[in-house]
Amino acid sequence: MSTQESRKERIDRGIKVRSDGLYALMSWRELSYLTLPRFIMIAGMLSLPFLMPDMYWQRVISIVCIYAILALSFDFLAHYVGLVSLGGAFFIGTGGYIAGILNSYFSIPPFLTVPLAAIIGGIFCTLMLLPCLPLKGVYFAIVTLMYPLFMARVIEAFDIFGGTDGLVGIDSFSSSFAEQYFVIGMVLIFLFGLRRFVTTDRGLIFTAIMDNDQAVKASGIDITRYKALAVFIASAMGCMAGACLTHIYMWSGISQFALDFSILPIAATVIGGAGTLVGPILGCLILVPVSELLRDFGTLRIVFYASILVGFILFKSGGIMEFGQRKYEQFERWTQI
Amino acid sequence: MEILVYGTINSVSLALMGLGFAMVYGISRVPNFAHGALYIVCGFVTWTLFHKIGLPYFISIILSLCVNGVLGILMYRFVLIRVRGMNISEIIASYAIGLAILEGFRFGGFRGMTYTLPVFMEGSLMIGDVPVDFHRLIMMVIGILLVAGLWVFTHHTRIGLALQGMAQDERAALMLGIDSDFMAMLAMGFGAVLAGVAATLILPLGNIVVESGYHVLIMSIAVCIVGGLGSWTGAFFAAFIIGYAQILTVVFIGSHFQMVVALLAIILTLILKPSGLFGQQKELEERV
Amino acid sequence: MTDPILKTNGLSKRFGGVKALKDVSFDVFPGDVLGIIGPNGSGKTTIVNCITGFIKPTSGKVFFRGKDITGRPPHKIADMGVTRTFQVMRPYYSLPAYKNLVIPLFSPRAKRTGGWRGGGNLGNRQTIAIDILEDIGFERDSYIPFKKTSTLPTGYLKRLELARCLALKPEIIICDEVFSGLSMSEIASMVPLIERLQDEGITIVMIEHRLRELFQVANRVMVLNFGEKLIEGTPLDVMANKKVKEAYFGSEEVEEVMTYA
């Protein structure tokens, strides 16, 4: 009287096992199994400007990349260092304003303002966030949440840097293609750079801080210093994105501190796959066009992102990347118990 | 004299705002980032009931406080309960809900400066040589009564003591038979009601705008951090410190500085004494 | 009489209403192996946390080589050469064993001293990590340092914890229950390791429950009970002491159950 029960079993695909480690060099098939996804991604991103028919959508690509850089920095901070930044807008706004100031008050050209904004902005943001680094992650979240709102209020109240009108008449990139390829290039560089970095030994320290900071402290390492380094990397990335944004729109204003920039990267990361560093980019590729389509609905966009966010958090989905990776690397079948 | 009066008024209103947040965090260790949203919800619901539907003012207030409470309980029951303990997810989830509510209101047409609530009592009286309108006085009185009442409640009633027990040591409370999830749910409902009370008292003094939601959230967090996350006596004292500091800067420097003061207070606290005034957090530096 | 390398003076710690440590003072001399024993809850781990900076004592002081190190941050104390192991280890289970050592080798102290057996110059960290592991008993020929940490038995994991301290070329290692969770034979092979570390000049403080094995290596023992120091002395003295027996077994007459080889 035995009841036949079956359960689902997941096994690595044959080709995945065959292409493990050195064996990947066995044949073209194994090699392409490993490299094809990356290749498709790089080729896809690089050819986007050609695929998009008109100016409007080409601008969308640039905006996607800006958000993607921000989402990358969020993912890095949140899942490789353990610091959740609820205020990406702080980085964008800081970088945006620095670039705007450098350009409109000092007439520095875009190809200089962007790196300058990244570095100066990175230092500024890191210093502002320094007090909460030795403390629990909650405080970092709280402070990053508040800073964008605070900065917007300060600029508005003191009417500095153009006040509510913002800084206008800022130079743009030399051509539309230059603009898009610059940001696409940056996204790819940051993506692969960060991926490489977190797998090095030094990158291991960050994950160690996230998992077991007691042991890291007991090993004689100053955690605050490494966290500050991580924040600097993330904020420099965000500031660079902000600077690009300023040059794309030729304008710097309070709306660069808007909630969009804080929420969308989080939603994109959660949807695309947290911790994968590629997931956030995918998430942005999906969410930003959708948000453009929803532009007519005003702030419903934010309701939309927020709801998605809550949904994913509740149901603990690993995101698209996790799903995709699982399908790519494993197959499922029912087996009898 | 002016400073004394306005300072006290400002402080009490800050205390009212911060109380809800402090209570929820103190009892269930859940940072409720939808606090500002709940504040605004009460305002808009009262407005709708009073102006659109035409219910008497007092009834509208009571009903919207109930709505707030239910909303808080639902929020806990369906969302926060699943992410309980995971600090970061709690923040993101409650923040997202708060955002959805606030921006939803904005989208739903609640824009502009036209939404107001009537004050409780017209007229004013003079304290010394400072004119103070009755509503502000009522707010102060009710605020102080509320804090006193809460103190009595948490120290002398069974549920209050249970909540305190949970605040001090959740596991021990669990072992003693106190259902921590149920208590947390109550705490959230209660905190939501407190947000509503704050809204009811403060909103008639101005307009109901969505931006106030964020403003209230920041002020509440400032009050709670300076006072020490988890201690509502600390929040009360912090409210006074920040409240007076704000009024002083308004008088002596300019009126734009309110938020700057709040933020400076937070940063200073984090640098100098991260656990706040009466903070009970021993292990502030990461998890042990 | 040489100066103590580590000294505590009146160390006390309160957690709210609980007095975890009450006025504990003791000395550790260079080259000692000091055992700290006591029933559960007597404050042993709290002492380690206070000494190594993970907890700030309510009152009292800690001195290392005469310098006041009370309340300093943990990484600074480790930087001076006072290292500790953790009772609950959380190594990188998914990584090869030697990768766990790479992190301590990034610390300033490792850079200065070159790590254990390092010449004074930090060359290739991975090589040094593997050398340390080999030194501590991971057979290189069997590729054990390269195995995934999750496949290693507890004995190796405990050695890994010690290796983490060794990577800093320490002067003191405070071992928090390093014998726990090990089988008799595993402990038997750990004892020579401890003795070897002592020969190399490292001062060792061991918090232990396994008294028989502890008394093989320790030359002095301190007993804690309810946060207070009961007695400090040689193992023989401690075992003969009536108060110690009462602390462990209660105040009835009991046969002396513990003998040591």
Radius of gyration of chain B: 19 Å
Regions with little confidence, pLDDT below 50 for 5+ residues of chain B: 283-288
Strand order within the widest sheet of chain A?
A: 1-4
> Percentage of helical residues of chain B?
over 70%
Which of globular, elongated, flat, extended, rod-shaped describes the shape of chain A?
globular
- Tally of separate helices of chain A: 14
Overall spatial form of chain B: globular
What is the H-and-E element order of chain B?
A: HHHHEEHHHHHHH
H/E order of the elements of chain A?
Answer: EHHHHHHEHHHHEHHHHE
> Total strand count of chain B, please?
2
Category by helix and strand content of chain A: mainly alpha
Give unreliable regions of chain A as ranges: none
Q: How would you classify the helix and strand content of chain B by structural class? A: mainly alpha
- Total DSSP E strands of chain A: 4
Q: What does the largest sheet of chain A look like? A: 2 strands, antiparallel
Describe what this molecule looks like in 3D.
With 337 residues, chain A is mostly helical. Chain A has 14 helices and four strands. Chain A has helices at residues 14-18, 28-51, 55-81, 88-106, 110-129, 137-158, 176-199, 201-211, 213-218, 223-249, 259-272, 279-293, 300-315, 319-329, and strands at residues 6-12, 167-168, 251-252, 330-336. Chain A is globular. The mean pLDDT of chain A is 84. Chain B is mostly helical and 288 residues long. Chain B has one domain. A two-stranded antiparallel ribbon of chain B has the order 1-2. In chain B, β1 and β2 (130-133) form a beta hairpin. In chain B, α5 (134-156) packs across α6 (158-168). The termini of chain B are far apart. In chain C, α7 packs parallel to α8 (211-217). Chain C is globular and about 50 Å long. Chain C is of the alpha/beta class. Chain C folds into two domains: 1-81 and 171-261, P-loop containing nucleotide triphosphate hydrolases (Rossmann fold), CATH 3.40.50; 90-169, no CATH class. At the A-B interface, α6, α11 and α13 of A face α4, α9 and α11 of B.
